[in-house]
Amino acid sequence: MVISGSDNGIKKRGCALTKQDFLPEESFQSWGNYAKALSSTKTRLQDRLLARSDDNLELHAMRARSEHEMKKTLNWFDLIWFGIGAVMGAGIFVLTGEAARNDAGPAVVISYLISGTSALLSVLCYTEFSVELPVAGGSFAYLRVELGDFIAYIAAGNILFEYVVAGASVARSWTSYFATLCNHDPNDFRINISSFPAEYSHLDPIAVAVSIAICIGACISMKGSSRFNSVATIIHLVILLFILVTGLTKANPANYDSFAPNGIRGILKASAVLFFAYVGFDGVATLGEEIKNPGRDIPIGLIGSMLITITVYCILSGTLCLMQPYSEIDVDAPFTKAFQAAGMNWAKFIVALGALKGMTTVLLANIIGQARYFTHIGRTHMAPPILAAINERTGTPMNATVIMTIANATVAFFTSLDVLSNLLSISTLFIFSLVALALLVRRYYVTGETSNSDRNKLIGFLAVIIGSSIATAVYWAIVEGNGWVGYVVTVSIWFFATLWLQLSLKQARKPKMWGVPLLPWLPSACIAANVFIMGSIDKPSFVRFILWTLVLLLYYLFVPLHASYDAARETERTANASRTSNIEAGVAQ
């Protein structure tokens, strides 16, 4: 059975898909309607550009459009394992070698701690939002409430890119590590089509099969998926513990004699690379509708899982540098080569098994988070409302899960899109920065309560915080020496802007259950850290990011703008009718 979209919600239909499943809004019912909508683009854009949702709308009216509720089956224990499973994939096995050998040396431990702390800042921001707004939309819903529809749409486009590219890359990496376990070259398991361009010539049916298997599990039961994730993640941690203990038997403290060969710049450069070993936790924030006690379970699950991950990464990277001099660490397969150098060739199979287990849970978390993001985006009609459907029997977003898996598997079958990996990084950091910015707006601005003077002050402080963060990142990117004067200037501007924000503006809203401490310092530091890490990404990736954003804008003007405008008008009519009915009922009494 297919669920199709309508203006007010979704309804059951037969097995055939029609235009109504994707574009049920009034603007798309005829070419005449569409032409009329296009002629009103300027007016509609002005309406939606700064239009903000609110907590009540996201928690009730938007969720009602799915017709059925997701099942509340998760607790803090499930979330801890989901958090670890979503983050701890193959990153530790791949990124550590490059960071240690080329940049930080044994001080890669400090680099992991710095990047982990930066990621923890984002986790704290996500935690407050997900406790206050436990909805499937995650960061999309948070941005819709605080920064408006338009910014949320740009974020949605980057979320789509982030999850599809990440899912495809991990699925193809799954094939590579599976081949290692079987003592084969990865391309032995791929279909070579010589007539295709080189980057698309190795078709990967195993990546597709793994994606489909995970999709089936995610569709059948969220609690079942949680149990599988917990077991797989525990096995993964046991394997990592084995690698740790075995590696320490070959430890040589003399390898730490040159602890930070490239100084603080090498440590910070490595931390920028290693930050991406921590991404994935944002998908856990999309589970809000399925958590029994969000106020208690989400902080424990999100923050607890990140603290465990930081600890494991620091210990493992420290062990690697004890096993080998940093100058001999292999960039591509650091742990495998370190064990081989110690005469333990068999250990490469243990490492491959650990990576395989990690990537399996990352894939599961990827499709679960992706489906829930787009369930909520579909509720707003910025994506086809067919994605908003919740299956009545399983309580899972089956339509979104299947459609997103098809997108992931299609990309994975043809290419890993390695050329877009840095663009993925920009998208991730961009969204993390927006969420931290949105949290500051949420705490210091409430429509109808905050004065115009305080609103303008807030805008000014935020502009200076963002501008000084960008200046620090740009200075880092262009200055190779010890030009500390520039950092003193830019960091001081950031510091005093944050301080003046704290001293001159009173918080307009307090969190109801759990809030980020040390406001505004931690969200402001989160913005600065994310922007700083962006400074380490190459220029061509920024060009691609700008081009991708322009494509999103062009599509927005032709479809999502009009679909979301019609949906918003329908929501207003429904709310007005409800208020009128309540007033009449009160008069009648």
Structure description:
The protein is mostly helical and 589 residues long. The protein is 68% helix and 2% strand. It has helices at 19-22, 31-39, 41-49, 55-64, 76-87, 91-104, 108-132, 139-146, 149-181, 205-220, 222-248, 263-274, 294-323, 334-341, 347-379, 398-414, 421-444, 452-478, 484-504, 521-534, 539-558, 560-588, and strands spanning 3-5, 10-12, 191-192, 202-203.
What features would you highlight for this structure?
589 residues; mainly alpha; two-stranded antiparallel sheet; 68% helix; disordered N terminus
Q: Order of strands side by side in the largest beta sheet? A: 1-2
Structural class: mainly alpha
How many separate helices? Answer: 22
- Compute the average pLDDT: 88
Q: State the major sheet.
A: 2 strands, antiparallel
Beta-strand content = under 5%
Approximate helicity band = 55-70%
| Spans where pLDDT lies below 50 across 5 or more residues | 1-9
Radius of gyration: 25 Å
> How would you name the oligomeric state of the polypeptide chains in this document?
single chain
The ordered string of helix (H) and strand (E) elements is: EEHHHHHHHHHEEHHHHHHHHHHHHH
Number of strands: 4
What is the strand and helix layout of this fold?
Elements: E1 3-5, E2 10-12, H1 19-22, H2 31-39, H3 41-49, H4 55-64, H5 76-87, H6 91-104, H7 108-132, H8 139-146, H9 149-181, E3 191-192, E4 202-203, H10 205-220, H11 222-248, H12 263-274, H13 294-323, H14 334-341, H15 347-379, H16 398-414, H17 421-444, H18 452-478, H19 484-504, H20 521-534, H21 539-558, H22 560-588
Antiparallel strand pairs: 1-2, 3-4
Helix pairs in contact: 3-22, 5-11, 5-13, 5-15, 6-12, 7-12, 7-13, 7-17, 7-20, 8-9, 8-17, 9-10, 9-15, 9-16, 9-17, 9-21, 10-15, 10-16, 11-13, 11-15, 14-15, 15-16, 17-20, 17-21, 18-19, 18-20
